[in-house]
Amino acid sequence: MSAIDQQRAGQPLLVETFAEWREAARELLVHDVPPEAVTWSTPTAGGDLFSGAPSTAEQPHNSSKPPSPAPDAPPRHPPPHVPRSLMDMLQSAACCRVPDRWAFLYRVIWRWQQGEHEVQSPADEDGARLNAMVKAVRREEHDMHAYIRFRERPPEAGPPRFVAWYEPQHDVLPQVAEHFISRMGKVSWMIATPEASVLWDGQTLHNTGPLVKNSEDLEDTGEALWLTYYRSVFNPARLNQSVMQQHIPSHRWKNLPEGKIVPQMISEASVGARKIGQYEAVGQRKGTTIPIAPEDAQPERQQPSKLDECRRCELWQFATQAVGGEGPKKAKIMFVGEQPGDQEDLAGQPFVGPAGKLLDRVCEAAGVDRESIYVTNAVKHFKWEPRGKRRLHKTPAQKEIEACHYWLEKELAHVKPTVIVALGATALKSVMRTANVTLKNSIGHPVFHEGHWIVTTYHPSYVLRVPSEEAKREAFQTMVDSLKLAHELLNRQPEEPPA
Amino acid sequence: MELKDKLEILADAAKYDASCASSGAPKRDSVDKDGLGATNGMGICHSYTPDGRCVSLLKILLTNFCVYDCQYCVNRRTSNVPRARFSVDEVVKLTQDFYLRNYIDGLFLSSGIIQSSDYTMEQLVEVARRLREEHQFRGYIHLKTIPDADPRLIELAGKYADRLSVNIELPTQDSVSRLAPEKNVHTIKLAMGSIRTKLDEKDEHPKAPVFAPAGQSTQMIVGADASDDQTILNTAQTLYGSYKLKRVYYSAFSPIPQSPSSVPSAPPPLLREHRLYQADFLLRGYGFTAGELMPNAGNLALDIDPKLAWALGNRDHFPLDLNRADEGMIARVPGIGLRSAKRLIDLRRLRRIRWEDLSRLRCSLKKLAPFVVTADYKPAQGAASSELLRRTMADAPQQMNLWPELQAA
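Output (structure tokens, whole complex):
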């Protein structure tokens, strides 16, 4: 008999599963039956308590039969389109053991059909209840995933190898069984509950009668190790009972093996063990100190370089490491950039990120061998500020540039380059040792300063950052030209006025 | 020594590691496969101990023999504690047994340093390798990384483990060199950096070999040195930004047996740890910076939570009109969380927000009342002084211990 016919005959609509409800609800919606006009009912008991899955054979309806169309009542609406998110919520809520669950779900879907889409929102009155039901069911699933305790059966007893007893508050056994199938692989197990039991034989899931009737039915010697672990991993110095109770409500403890030792642990911790963090049984054992001389305990470490120990400014605190220069010790050209970036800071090498790749292309376009150039930065530690979970480059201050000049001077004295190519304003300020120079006026005008030709150009990250394609091409060309100029200057006498 | 005795000692020694997460691993299952284990990305707490901490992993040390002498650590070489060492097979078997009984979601393995950093790391990696390759274990594995170990060993660890962690232990370099003479912030940072580089590689080249899919984390001990919360949060922020950490764990220093005189003999209030976790969550989830939460040196307030403290110190942003403000700013209102902020934005597309909605969303009305404007509500306390508001919203004051020695004894 179809849902509509049953309603007309004044019979309550008997529904047991979500699929049945869904069929019935669809039919009612199509015929525009308001929620007030429907009475729903559920089978009184979920079958015989210990005979396994409830049988549906004796029920007065059969949901697998398609509802017969009533010729005198043509559908008034097309079947409703319910979004997946709402359907999922309804399906979850249907597992909640409240007497009026089917009627309530129908009211929700009816309201949705009427265009009241806020019925899904927890700020709506029905929505709040729907969300609360979903939450209760999810919580029960979670608790069952977490607090089921399998006990191992002796091998001679045959399969299943592991058996658990649990008393779920909502109808979540089917989905919980799925969880354990994915977790346990080919190991056989059974979960028994007061209403139903499932058995996994390693390949298929069976609904069966229970092997156990409560949690006391099985002994497992493996449990002693678990209790040992549970006791030892607890820190008596941090006793915090209320947080524990917040997470596992007291009704859960009776079926948990560790639940039985909790009161004792609490009382021990509150009287004596609280002073130190150590668990009593461990504290009573004989201790050992390790006879080893402090110097022998030192790990084999590379001596940090002098640069790594630099504390001339505060930047070291926020960086991973100092990044020194790299290249041939007798290079004729030296690139001076601004400071290491995010990737350089991790790798400990200058110009390894996107800017470094661009520099490679500039060298290639100018026909200069990048390998022949010494590459370094004006500031050796990465300066940054947080932006969400990322590090955003921050331009170094003049005092940091000055503090770090010490290291640049050492490099200059060591490498003795003929030409220094200053990449960007920070590098220029650093090599010229003044803040009174501008990038704009210096590009294309090399100067001879303290024994080196100084050629100024853009920093490669400027080329990467500049928004318009045309400006990008121009800036790239400027860099190529500057590098070519640097190459020419290698053979020019310093007395000559710059071109 | 019996397995039970070893477990007693080596679990006791591992309880100072605050990390317990088993989330973030890629989805795996054992349907129709040999071996066992599944991860669904969420992680499950399988129990709670009376200290309120969750048990989701078998958290143990491989050994508590240690040649280092870190003053805050119960396993330091000069500490007179019982010592034990698991064999690799014992850990492998224990992990599987506990997993089958549904006690745990996986393994968290750490170790004292024996022989050398490389030797110790090799042993840790061997446990993970055997679980994964010989026993097809698909549960969660978290390995504590020895910072001085060969980068190739760290790479191997990342191949087997879901999460790697390197403990920074103390927030400043000075404290580390004073309290942990064999450790070095520089090498710790380098190890974190090398892990991040590998994680980045995997992000950029999806076909690169798997490397620690649940990322890396670290732990800082609170209250063993004199660092204040501002220093701690700044260090945390530096670590999050630099090494893309999933989490920084804060572990309130626990007094240890025969404590050396270099560390305090009393624990800091656990509430301080709690406030740090709250502040940390604001850094990670809400887009706050450490500078906003702690503009001045000192510690976080104990009587009110950090978000409320920030709001009281920044009254010019409030009251906030919930029908106009953007989501990020709504989430900054005390009493409204990330999820409620999102729900309010969703609801706002349908109709205007009213006071009733806040109550149904189970926001903390007492907290948010002075800070919001809705279609039908304007706060009367809008002009009340922050000091007054603080007094009404602070946690109830508690009677101090008259005889702290007696309580602690």
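Residues 325 and 376 of chain A are 4 Å apart (CA to CA).
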